Amino acid sequence: MKTTVKNTLLATVGAAAAFGGATAVASADSVTVKSGDTLYSIAQANGVSVDELASINNVTNPNLIFVGQNLELTKGASETAAPQVSAKPVAATTEQVATTSVASASHAVTDASNTYPAGQCTWFVKNAAPWAGNYWGNATNWAASAAAAGFSVSGTPQVGSIAVFGAGVGGADSVYGHVAMVDAVNPEGTITISEGNYAGMAYHTRTISAAGLQFIN
Length: 217
Prior knowledge:
217 residues; 5 helices; PcsB-like; endopeptidase fold (from Nostoc punctiforme)
C-alpha cells in the first residue's frame, strides 16, 4: 500500500507495548504475554496460527493483547484456565510506533523501529518482522529492496516469509502493491497470510494461492 500517511487512526496496536523484550515462549500449555509481544509473534514462537490462538483464547481483536495476559495454546487448556489481565493496553495513533517481534531464525534484527505510516500494510509487516528494512519504499518495491539489501527473494514461501504482491496482484493496490506475513504454507499450493490495511481492516487473515507472489525469506 502507499507510504503516504492516511488520516486513519488505530485505536490500538497489536502489541503489548511500544518497546519491550523477547516474545514469551510457553512452558507447558500456556504463555504469559510480556512487554513487546504481539499475537503473531507468540503464535509463531509456539507453532500455532494466529487464528487458532485467537480462537482458543476468545480474542476478538488480534491487535489487542495485554501484558500479563495468560494465553492458552491448546483448546483443552483454555477450558480450564481463563485469561488474566494485569496491565492496561498500549494505545497508538498515526505517530511512529515501534514494536518488537520474533524475527525469522536466519535474520538478525538491526533496527526494530518502524518508519512506515501507521496503519499501512508496510507498517503492519515491519512490526511483525522487525528484520525488514525501514526504507524499502512502497509495498510493490519491497522484493527489489530486500534483494538489494542481501535478503533471499524467490517464489517459494516459508512460514515467517514476507509475501510481496505486485501492483494489482491478488487484490493489491493497482499502484502501490501489498505486503503480508506468511503464517502457514499449505500442501495444496496455498498460503495463509496475516496483513494490515486490507479491505479497510487493521488486521486481516486469509488463505490464498501462492502463485504470482514473491517471498522475502
